[in-house]
Amino acid sequence: MAGHLLVAQERTTPYTYAVGADVLGGFIIKHRDVIGQLIKGHPTGFRLNFSKYSYGHKAWEQIYGYPTINFSFSYFDLKNDEVLGKAMTLNAGLIFHLNDYTRSKNDFQARLGFGLAYVTKAYDKDNNNKNTLVSAPMPWSINLGVGYERRVSSRVRVGTTLLLSHFSNASRQQPNLGMNIINLNIGARYMLSAEEPEFKTDKINQQGYSTKAYINVDFRIGFNEKKPIGSGRLPYYAFAVFWNKRVGKKSILDAGLEGFVNKAYKAEIENKQPLNEGFPDYRSASVMIGHELILHRLALVTQVGVYFYKPYTPSDWMYFKVGLKYYFTEHVYASLTLKSHFAVAEVLEYGIGVRF
Fold first, then answer.
1. CB-based contact 199:56 (threshold 8 Å)
2. Which residues of 243-281 are buried (b: 16+ CB within 10 A; e: fewer)?
3. Residue 177, pLDDT above cutoff 90
4. In Å, how far from its chain's centre is CA 161?
5. Nearest to 60, CA basis, from 73, 69, 50
6. Do both 43 and 147 map to the same domain?
7. Residue 23 and residue 161 in one domain
8. Per-residue pLDDT, 206
């Protein structure tokens, strides 16, 4: 009887856990000519993982095919101790299973992670002025990748992952060309429980959502430094009014107007041109469309905008945003988004908003 009760308890466990380790090797992408002189070899290192496997006890887990929550610590030897040093990251993210891995020993994956990094050799005007990639010792870290794992026993899984690891401070401080490492990871995962709970399917068709359209008003702030290097971080403000509407279990569509005031642009203009000669307006305004991928209260945000007013640097006529939004309630949310002009990051936005 005790054995039957134990099995019943295990089958209702909402999550199981695993630990893992990978070795990695790769290369730094030369996205600017100046980066070439800093690349002395192929970065190597290792990654330690802690994973939380879901089984559909929440509706969003069933909708997305039982994604895995993953926490990782990574170590990179950048093969240029004098200028680049070493890099370490702490990331949290999601592993999406692209096939029905509940019925197969093969698991094809897509990975997304966000976190913080620490680099031992950041830019320093006096002691390390050649490192134009990373200007602050604690930049942001983003991982994007695809992977494959094979279940070899009830507890052991082996696999490989191809990742793009990005390091940047989002132009909070200059210089900030950013560092991108393509890295191949090979390793194994060890399940802390040999028993796998039942994958639930009962909620996938019961997930309700409101189709009401909302008007959103939000305010965002950031900090930015422009040329010359060392001019200091200055505030950035953004204000948006936009329409959005949920169009399915996974998606919200956005469309509206945004306005921007970047004090770092103002300082850059004044540094280039004396005030008595007049100078272009550093403010800008745009139209925006976007998409939100809903993960329970969390949303992955992607947006694209086109300026209709931008007297300063009009060649940057389009911008892109990627980030996260968290809905505290149906009407109140917070956001964290990276704004860039093509491959050049402008600012990291911290926002709060309401929906009516």
1. yes
2. ebebeebbebebebebebebbbbbbbbeeeeeeeeebee
3. no
4. 17
5. 69
6. yes
7. yes
8. 64
Parallel, antiparallel or unpaired: strands 318-327 and 298-309: antiparallel
The torsion angles phi and psi of 350, rounded to 5 degrees, stand at: -110, 120
Please tell me the predicted confidence (pLDDT) of residue 171.
78
Provide the number of structural domains found in the chain: 2
Q: Which of 119-123, 168-172, 223-227, 271-275 has the lowest mean pLDDT?
A: 271-275
Question: Rounded CA gap, 123 and 134, in Å?
Answer: 6
Predicted pLDDT at 271: 79
Strand partners, 259: 239, 285
Tell me the C-alpha distance between 89 and 79, whole Å: 17
Q: Using alpha carbons only, give the angle 180, 140, 283 rounded to the nearest 5 degrees.
A: 100
- For residues 187 and 226, state if they share a domain: no
Q: How many residues does the chain have?
A: 356
CB 313 within 8 A of CB 280: no
Identify the CA nearest to 86 among candidates 118, 115, 113, 114. Answer: 118
Amino acid at 137: P
pLDDT at residue 178 in the model: 87
Q: Which of 191, 225, 241 is the last residue of a domain?
A: 191
Asked whether 96 and 107 are in contact (CB, 8 A), the reply is: no
The band of 301, judged by pLDDT with boundaries at 50, 70 and 90, is very high
Does pLDDT of 249 surpass 60? yes
Residues 282 and 259 sit within 8 Å (Cβ to Cβ)? no
Do 227 and 161 have their domain in common?
no
Q: Mean pLDDT, to the nearest integer, of 241-268?
A: 94
What residues are paired with 323 via a beta bridge? 301, 337
Residue 230 has pLDDT above 80, yes or no: no
Q: Cβ(191)–Cβ(16) under 8 Å?
A: yes
